[in-house]
Design a protein that fits this description.
- The structure is a single chain.
- The protein has helices spanning 14-22, 35-38, 102-110, 112-126, 136-160, 170-178, 202-213; strands at 4-7, 26-31, 57-65, 74-82, 90-96, 182-186, 191-195.
- By secondary structure, the chain is of the alpha+beta class.
- It has two domains: 4-110, no CATH class; 113-220, no CATH class.
- Strands 1-2-5-4-3 form a five-stranded mixed β-sheet, with helices on both faces. The protein has a two-stranded antiparallel sheet with strand order 6-7.
- Helix 4 runs parallel beside helix 6 (170-178).
- The relative contact order is 0.09.
Amino acid sequence: MDIYIRGDAAFGSPEFYEYAEKKNLSYVVRLKSNPNLYEPIVHLLIRPIGRPSYKPQYYYHSFYYQAKSWNIPRRVVAKVEWHYGELFPKVGFIVTNLSGSSKNVIRFYNKRGTAEQWIKEGKNAIKWTKLSCHKFVSNEVRLLLFSLAYNLGNFLRTLALPKKMANWSLTTLKEKLIKLGAKTIKHARYIRFQIAEFIVTGKLFGDILKNIHQLQIAPG
């Protein structure tokens, strides 16, 4: 199984690179900038000739670089962004052992933000950082239960929500659906729930219940 690691500059240590290479792990890690890294991309730091574009302009360049603490030279991919109205470009560096094009390496690294959003959603919606037990094993169990609840919530969110609510996050789902106030009216033959249709209308609520009902396992 191939393993790919994305990390910010905090993971950029010689020990990490050597371990990943020894274990045949693929990595893309943010690299802190220094004057030596700018020398190979001087030609990209000159403002493009002509009328400035309203759309951002992106340039990529790959080169090999060896820091004093590194045992071997490693591939570095630079991304230079020119934005309209800005005097200087935005520059970022990635160190990697991937062999793809510079643009694809940067694109792969940028997906790290997607994972961070999922982690942030888990912290906000599930509160899975509440690990207040005194023993490590107990906190491990709690975190596993939080992860199970998170995955179950995403499972239901994906399969049970109507198309109009398909882009709702777990946080939005909790605040606008699960925490809804309702009034219960009990009759002789039925129980009625009265819910304010401020966010979720009666039709949407009915569609959700219908989709959940369809998730039942077929007999046999």
